[in-house]
Automatic annotation (TrEMBL):
Protein name: NAD-dependent epimerase/dehydratase domain-containing protein
Domain NAD-dependent epimerase/dehydratase, residue spans: 8-247
InterPro entries: Epimerase_deHydtase, NAD(P)-bd_dom_sf
Cited CDD domains: UDP_AE_SDR_e (cd05256)
Gene3D superfamilies referenced in this protein's UniProt entry, alphabetically: NAD(P)-binding Rossmann-like Domain (3.40.50.720), UDP-galactose 4-epimerase, domain 1 (3.90.25.10)
Sequence similarity: Belongs to the NAD(P)-dependent epimerase/dehydratase family.
Amino acid sequence: MKDSKRCVVTGAAGFIGSNLVRALLDQGWDVVALDNLSTGRKENLEDLHGRTGFTFVEGDVRDQDTLRDVFAGASVVFHQAALGSVPRSVDDPWTTHDHNVNGTLSALLAARDQGVKRFVYASSSSVYGDTAVLPKVETMTPNPLSPYAVSKYVGELYCAVFARVYGLETVILRYFNVFGPRQDPNSQYAAVIPRFVSALAEGKAPTIFGDGEQTRDFTFIDNVVQANILAATADHPDLPGKAMNIGCGRRYSINELLRHLQEIMGTDVTPSYVAPRPGDVRDSQADITLARTLIGYEPSVGLREGLEKTVAWFQARRVS
């Protein structure tokens, strides 16, 4: 018997997945959290063990036997599992492809075979590449600049085909530079905000790739979590198979970002500027009109508030 509020979150021990799991539990969902712990961290879910409605399964999305068991009876799959990072994909394109493309196809097949109603896929603004026109709109032709971006776009194509051919209600969310609590600052491929917060807290010079005038649509995790839950529950007839941007609709330079963090943390450490990284886009900004129309998405937390919440979380963690 399928439970309309039973769901699976893949990549559940990662940054986005672990925040999503908490929000779903708070809203009364039964959540099966799946992660192979290759990049996800057990401590992200430690406080949830024993909580009503929560089950953790250590397993890989490329393993069909595992997925058949995990997806059985679920109405929604939130597919967050992926090997992130543009630089990592440039260093090792095969491993990125294996996790992101093969893993997504494996999850789609299991969702189809187990009768899952809706499949929410975490994609990336990186699929657009560099475009002279901003903000980026879903009607633009994708132009991936890295193996990571290619892998996320291939996943999108599979989702669209599964909606068209098999009737699986796929929804594709193109995330724009997500940040917030539980984002790992220690990986060599860590995102810019946790790296900056960690460096400033230690009085070290943050590293900026390029001149720092490149821009991003920084999106606080609460906005992304909200978008996922809306994508799982919205009932718009044009939704299945559609890709939509999830951002805030504004862009800030890396230099501006650092200034905000310096003000919040009360530091004035001078950054270190190094050569730009291959595969990085110059500017990024989301047009969120389609997400507003199809799922009723409206970002609730802006950059400054999100940075304050993020810094507070990291500081509390350093003190404890």
